[in-house]
Amino acid sequence: MGKSKTAKFKRPQFNSVGLPVNAVKEVDAEEEQLDDDGCPAAELLEKLQSPSADVREFACASISRVVQQSQTIPGFLQRDAVRRLGPMLLDSSLPVRETATGALRNLSACGGQEVCEDMVKHDVMTPLTALLRECCAGFESAVVPMKEQKNLVEDVANEAVNLLWNLCESSSQALSVFNKSGLLDVVVQCLERQPHNVELAISAAHCLHTVTEDNPELLCSLNTAVLGALENVLLSSQPGMAHHLLRTLAAGTLWNMKGSLPAARQAQTVTAVVATLSRCLDLDAGTLIPELREAEALHHRNAPAETNAEEAAAAELAVEEMDEEEEAPKQRRNGKAVKVDNDFSDLLPRGKEELREATALLTAQQTSLEIIVNMCCSDDPSDDEWEEESSSDESDLGPDGLCDGLSNLMSPLCLSAEVHGALINHSIPEKVLKKTEFPRNEAMDVCHQNPSWRGLIKKMQRVQSRALTCLHSILSTMDAESLGGAAALQGAAQHLSTLVFGAAELTKDEEFLEAVISAMRSLLQMIASKNIPQCMTPQQLMSLSEAATRCDVVSVRVNAVAILGITGSTLAKEKGTAETLQMIGTALLQVATRDADLVVNGEALDALFDVFADGDEAETAAKNIHLLPALKALQPVFKAKIRKEGKGKYTPQQLCVLDNIKVNLRRFIGYLEKVVKK
Length: 678
Hints:
It is a single chain. With about 675 residues, this protein is mainly alpha-helical. Among the domains are: about 140 residues, Leucine-rich Repeat Variant, CATH 1.25.10; about 180 residues, Leucine-rich Repeat Variant. The chain has 33 helices and two strands. A two-stranded antiparallel ribbon has the order 1-2. Strand 1 and strand 2 form a beta hairpin. Helix 1 crosses helix 3, helix 6 packs parallel to helix 8 and helix 26 runs parallel beside helix 28. About 15% of the residues have low confidence.
């Protein structure tokens, strides 16, 4: 069904922050009194009115912890928690401000989009904006000369920026307030704290990366100060994984802003952005993670036993939260799907610096790969929709036979000369392919052996999946010669086959399966178009197809069917392939007939058109599997299914493509009838 686009990656929604170690101990030391429904909301919210700052701080810290259990959130919302916590952001006590902001941050993160919109509706943006302005004014205030006090102001700012990030990710109204309230300059001030507080700078960079995406209203108000701050970060050279993450986020923000840059600076900025991503991908997590774990072990050997016990307990709490929230549902922003990536690095206690560095490394590499995917995607507003176009019988249909707008969507994807040149010059395709390898055993073993490091296993696997998606995008936008020609493509195909078939049985990991199959489809499509020999055996092909058809993810089934079509149409040109074509045809007929999703049915039919369009081997195979009577029986069922299920369940574009396939099915049946009469 033609070349497919990869949907642009949206920034992951921010997630909950953990309590400081002392707050955790304080909360655990006292049992909260529970309401009838098992939620301590009423008593904790009542304590917010206490004249004692310590009691107010305790109440906020308790709320921050309790709402991480999502089942408790309704109890707080029913008791007007947002309106009662809002004034706490401007409390006279800085520790209260910090814990209150953390509580709202956790509430927004664990409650999802609906809670975020409710918070904005209850005007949380007003005290939040005031708090951020006060924090930034306090950064350089001569009235607060004490170093520790100054750090507390930055800690409050860090919580506030993260709450702002979460709200803007989930609520278009929050984003509108951000645009109109001049908060951009405030967040940039937080970014500029990088020499003193890289954690705050990273939070600000995450926020900027989010608010600059698909936000033309904000981009119109950009000034040289904003660009200068981002470029200063990009050109910084501090060592450490946290700084790599900071530079990566700055690169992503500059890419989001590319359309607002002066024309004379665009090429230079693209080069700087790609160079930053390239340096990040050069880092070898398989080597660095064991080294960081060894450094942590050395640190523990030299530290007092009591300190180690406290850090281990806090890290265990963090890992539990990571495990509970790892499989969060997808959120939506402005009607678009947002892939939620739960990053709980902030849950880690401050003593776990090596683990923070390892987490920053993997987050930076994942983000780098997502930015490259977005570079390879067009700005077409339909990027978030299914865009599989029918390639069969295009010449027969002519312009009038296509639905309005379909011809534009079928135009080849392409990169600008600047982006294409930068990606090639910095060897991005080769580096992305390297990242598609399975995580090294040494790194996996280190993480398995240490409970506090176990959360990194999923992160390493996600980097691999993002690399596969990135490879798919690169294959969809570059020509074979740019990627190294036939030998390089065959090597990549062999590598992908090893990823899929190297294990004793096919993986059931849907995220990996979705990414690797989309990459394999793009690669096999390119190989077929250049008449390069395929590297997958029929047995591998069928086992892949069988595994994919059992997958719940529609795109996995669509791409697996497309791979069958690509391989079958190539084999149809060769002698002695009728038996394999029968196997492929039978599998495609089963999918076209039995799959519950019309999109998958359509892809299977389109693949059948390609495989059995021409050639003696195809004719023999079609006769042996009784293709003509099978399609005749399927035709009225397919038409009725489109009529019955189409409206409401599928997008107008999907229906347009399905109508096109319906027409092609009628024509293909006519073609087979002529073949039978020969």
